[in-house]
Task: inverse folding
């Protein structure tokens, strides 16, 4: 599985906004803090805004805020907002993949994998990542630092 730069950047934007509480944050500040190219960041933030995951206000007091509670935004929501489907096989959703015999079982595998990916990405929220508790949301032991 490959996580795109768009997804990586979008998650980092949302963590940054969640950490800012109720104050607006500019794209310039996020780009600098997270070391994300500004022009690329603007496109990612636009997609997040369209999906309702961030909200914005123009002007000198403007910037971006997280659009919902961080605990209500699952990684699955973020991926769909910036990249579409969580898992595709040759750009086709697993439910639409079919193979002739004897490879028919491969389509079932992709379908099962898609369900697992959905479960994993749906179980972790922006709040989990901000609070460094994503491992607990997945039922995994804590990482040693």
Result:
């Amino acid at each position: 599985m490959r996580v795109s730069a768009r997804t990586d950047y979008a998650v980092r934007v949302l963590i940054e906004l969640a950490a800012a509480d109720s104050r607006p944050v500019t794209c310039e500040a996020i780009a600098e803090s997270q070391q994300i190219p500004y022009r690329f960041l603007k496109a990612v933030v636009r997609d997040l805004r369209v999906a309702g995951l961030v909200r914005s206000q123009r002007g000198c007091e403007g910037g971006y805020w997280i659009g919902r509670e961080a605990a209500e935004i699952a990684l699955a929501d973020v991926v769909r907002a910036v990249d579409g489907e969580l898992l595709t096989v040759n750009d086709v959703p697993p439910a639409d993949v079919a193979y002739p015999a004897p490879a028919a079982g491969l389509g079932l595998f992709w379908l099962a994998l898609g369900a697992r990916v959905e479960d994993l990405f749906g179980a972790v929220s922006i709040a989990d990542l901000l609070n460094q508790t994503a491992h607990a949301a997945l039922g995994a032991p804590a990482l040693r630092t």
